[in-house]
Amino acid sequence: MKLSILGCYSATPRTLNNTTSQVLEINNHMFLIDCGEGTQVQLRKHKIKFNRIKHIFISHLHGDHFFGLVGLISTFRLLTRETDLHIYGPKGIKEIVTLQMKLADSWTNYNLIFHELTSTKSELIFEDEKVEVHTIPLNHRVYTNGFLFKEKEGLRKLDINAVEKAKINVAYYRKLTQGFDVENEEGELIKNETVTFPGAKPKSYAFCSDTMYKEDIIPIIQDADVLYHESTFLEQHAHLAVRTKHSTAKEAARIAKKAQVRTLILGHYSTRYDGIEGFKKEALSVFENVELAEDGKTFDF
Amino acid sequence: MKLSILGCYSATPRTLNNTTSQVLEINNHMFLIDCGEGTQVQLRKHKIKFNRIKHIFISHLHGDHFFGLVGLISTFRLLTRETDLHIYGPKGIKEIVTLQMKLADSWTNYNLIFHELTSTKSELIFEDEKVEVHTIPLNHRVYTNGFLFKEKEGLRKLDINAVEKAKINVAYYRKLTQGFDVENEEGELIKNETVTFPGAKPKSYAFCSDTMYKEDIIPIIQDADVLYHESTFLEQHAHLAVRTKHSTAKEAARIAKKAQVRTLILGHYSTRYDGIEGFKKEALSVFENVELAEDGKTFDF
């Protein structure tokens, strides 16, 4: 899994700060998460091939998370894209995009498939053989979802010594890797876990922005390898976090700790501060493994 | 008059090319003309004070001319703007903006006044004591207007020798500068032009983008000091200009020549070419005074 941060600042794009957008590479997918104004230029800067993006996930309809979407869709059209594009986001997103296409008399030549979200419970919204994406209902000023990207359990590995000793026919090896119990050549039932090892641990990434501190999300993101949690404010502005339904760095860390994630990445910083080191410092007082998102930074995990 | 080019490329924003937007300073106004994605960042780069922009003119609803508008409006809100903002553009622009404000539950705390355009004839759409703005109906794939910015005739200058010789009372001097004939102290009617000089010649700027070659605009832009005319293509792609309702550099120059403007500025270049010098070369074969718009360039005239 590789995460590329295209933008991680709140509110408005600036000369050196981009608003929220990131690309998650997982099992050959390139998922675009949020799409602030200027995202298409950030994608070019990072040399991310437009055609590899087939799924875009929009957390909520505040401008700093989606004002770049219609431009990206339009650019895909101008570049004569043919690949389907799936858009997951709050109800209304389809109307916003199609109204602008209608008034510009510029419909896409590729399939644009909207998956509008309305549920306030976690839903499975994407699934293939290897990956699942679930929503994470958040608590912000408008309807907002985070997204949990999860690899599925991979194949188990054979314990060759044990398999041979148990006299299992080679024809059953594939069933064993899939986790089934099988009969050996003497008709005896062999328990799968006695002759296989677990496969590689599936990885998971939870994106949670924008949201106020919300413990309800903990069961959903429990044990995630990486949690990106917004931290718009430092403690000195905790009152603003409450008023605007955002989180402080410490609150993000508290969620990370309670959910026992491996790594916490902070982002969605207010631009009122000189530098972002303060966010890390405050979060580290609660949770030990904290990283700072920065525009242009990539994380491999 | 000062013109700042924020972006002058067609189709899509790129790492080094911005889509259409420019700021015209004229008689203490700062008029923003078109607003492609990323315009707010370009305004910051040029250190143009957001609050000085009170009027935005949008030529048409193709993305490269207005996808930055909703973000700019939203940023003005976040910066707690109080000044009224007037938006002039094709019918539909209000719905696009307000739909997004509604879904984001983020209404402006300043007055946002839409002036939706539908006429296919030139109209006076803004006027104060010193400046007028008229539409220039263009011919593109969707409803499009250029804009003519004109200073009004200024006060005439007194020919002091002639005035004294004509025995005109000082009380009438102001009327003379306003162009009226007046009676002298002997009750004789004095023709204004015999005792005054013309005031400074009022300046004018015509913005014409996007459009195919259209001679109907010539009477509207006749004698303009500066004409910005789109030139998306070079001659080798003249067939594409026809098909997409754009102009070539030569066609832009032909309009400039027939309208007897002083200076032609070319822009809205397709990014298919290596460099933009070819546009100037081709236009110069038709019209002698050609300038090239470039992102970040300013013109004083």
What do these coordinates show?
With 301 residues, chain A is an alpha/beta fold. Chain A folds into two domains: 2-154 and 200-300, Metallo-beta-lactamase, Chain A (4-Layer Sandwich); 159-197, no CATH class. In chain A, 24% of the residues lie in helices and 27% in strands. The first copy, chain A, contains ten helices and 18 strands. In chain A, strands 6-5-4-3-2-1-18 form a seven-stranded mixed β-sheet. Chains A, B: Belongs to the RNase Z family. Chains A, B: Its cofactor is Zn(2+). Chains A, B: Zn(2+) 1 binds at residues 60, 62, 140, 210. Chains A, B: Zn(2+) 2 binds at residues 64-65, 210, 268. Chains A, B: It holds the Pfam family Anti-Pycsar_Apyc1.
Which features would summarize this protein structure in a list?
24% helix, alpha/beta, 10 helices, seven-stranded mixed sheet, 27% strand, globular, 2 domains, homodimer, endonuclease (chains A, B), 301 residues, Metallo-beta-lactamase, Chain A
The radius of gyration over CA of chain A amounts to 22 Å
Low-confidence stretches of chain A: none
Q: What is the average per-residue confidence, as pLDDT of chain A, rounded to a whole number?
A: 96
| Shape designation of chain A | globular
**Structure classification of chain A:** alpha/beta
CATH superfamily annotation of the largest domain in chain A:
Ribonuclease Z/Hydroxyacylglutathione hydrolase-like
The CA-CA distance between the termini of chain A, in Å, is 5 Å
CATH class of the largest domain in chain A: Alpha Beta
Q: Helical percent range of chain A? A: 10-25%
Order of the strands making up the biggest sheet of chain A: 6-5-4-3-2-1-18
Q: Secondary-structure element order of chain A, as H and E?
A: EEEHEHHEHEEEEEHHEEEEHEHHEHEE
Instruction: Determine the number of helices of chain A (DSSP H or I, runs of at least 4 residues).
Output: 10
Largest interface pair: A-B, 34 and 34 residues
Quaternary structure annotation: homodimer
- What is the CATH fold-level name of the largest domain in chain A? Metallo-beta-lactamase, Chain A
What does the largest sheet of chain A look like?
A: 7 strands, mixed
How many strand elements of chain A? 18
CATH architecture of the largest domain in chain A: 4-Layer Sandwich
